Structures are given as structure tokens and as C-alpha cells.
């Protein structure tokens, strides 16, 4: 019973991540690949059928396979990620009334993610 519930939760998470990633195709502020990687992870714990479907999907499969097999983030993805994080940081600094500590914390997180993304192989 517990194993069945865990699989259900992982499948639900996979579906939420997949839908969020799919929406990211149309909204440049949402990263598609990151959510697809999370969906792949969740499906690997919940449903081998969904995992295989996503892993071999004609559109989403190749970047997921590149990430899983070689840790690759394509150059275009790196550029978009750093660009969107930079724009988000500028927005936080100049166009919001967020507390200074929140802005600093967000920018530190963005810098850490940007360093991780940039240091991954591109091909």
C-alpha cells in the first residue's frame, strides 16, 4: 500500500513538472529543460512507462538523454538561463520594493545556479 502511494506521488510530481516545463516552451521566464529533468526523475521513481516515454520523446528526449548520459547543457540553454537570470536580477534590484536581504539572497542563488550552468559541458 505504501509503495503504491509513493508511486502515485512520484507520478503526480512528474506530471506537475512536465506540465510546468511544457508551459515553459511558451513563457520565456520558465526553464523547460530543468522541469523536464525533474519530471524524468519523478517518473523514474513512479512509472517506468512514463519515464521511457519522456526519455525517448522526439522533442524532449535528446536534451534529457544528453543530460543524463553526459551532463550536457546546450550552449543555447546556457545563454538563455544566464540571460533570464540576469534580467530577473535587474528587475529585482530596480523595479521591486523587495527587502534588501531578499534581493541579495535571490541574486546569490542566481549566481550559484549560473556558475553551475556555465561550468557544465556544452556538447
Could you list some keywords that capture this structure?
single chain, 2 domains, 123 residues, mainly alpha, 0% strand, 80% helix
Question: Topology of this structure?
Answer:
Layout: H1 2-26, H2 32-46, H3 48-55, H4 61-70, H5 75-95, H6 100-119
In brief:
This protein has helices spanning 2-26, 32-46, 48-55, 61-70, 75-95, 100-119. With 123 residues, the protein is mainly alpha-helical.
Would you mind describing this structure in some detail?
The protein is an all-alpha fold and 123 residues long. The chain folds into 2 domains: 69 residues; 45 residues. Helices cover 80% and strands 0% of the residues. It is built from 6 helices and no strands. α1 packs antiparallel against α2, α2 packs antiparallel against α3 and α5 packs antiparallel against α6. The longest helix is centred in the N-terminal third of the chain and has 25 residues. The model has no long low-confidence stretch (mean pLDDT 91).
H/E series: HHHHHH
Task: Report the radius of gyration as a whole number of Å.
Answer: 17 Å
Query: What's the assembly state of these chains?
Result: single chain
Shape descriptor: globular
How many domains comprise the coordinates? 2
Q: Report the major sheet.
A: none
How many helices? The count is 6
Amino acid at each position: 500500500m505504501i509503495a503504491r502511494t509513493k508511486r502515485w506521488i512520484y507520478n503526480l510530481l512528474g506530471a506537475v513538472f512536465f506540465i510546468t516545463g511544457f508551459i515553459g516552451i511558451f513563457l520565456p521566464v520558465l526553464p523547460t529543460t530543468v522541469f523536464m529533468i525533474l519530471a524524468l526523475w519523478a517518473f523514474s521513481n513512479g512509472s517506468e512507462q512514463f519515464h521511457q516515454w519522456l526519455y525517448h520523446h522526439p522533442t524532449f528526449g535528446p536534451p534529457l538523454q544528453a543530460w543524463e548520459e553526459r551532463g550536457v547543457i546546450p550552449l543555447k540553454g546556457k545563454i538563455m538561463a544566464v540571460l533570464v537570470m540576469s534580467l530577473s536580477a535587474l528587475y529585482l534590484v530596480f523595479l521591486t520594493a523587495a527587502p534588501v536581504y531578499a534581493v541579495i539572497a535571490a541574486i546569490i542563488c542566481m549566481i550559484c545556479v549560473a556558475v553551475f550552468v556555465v561550468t557544465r559541458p556544452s556538447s
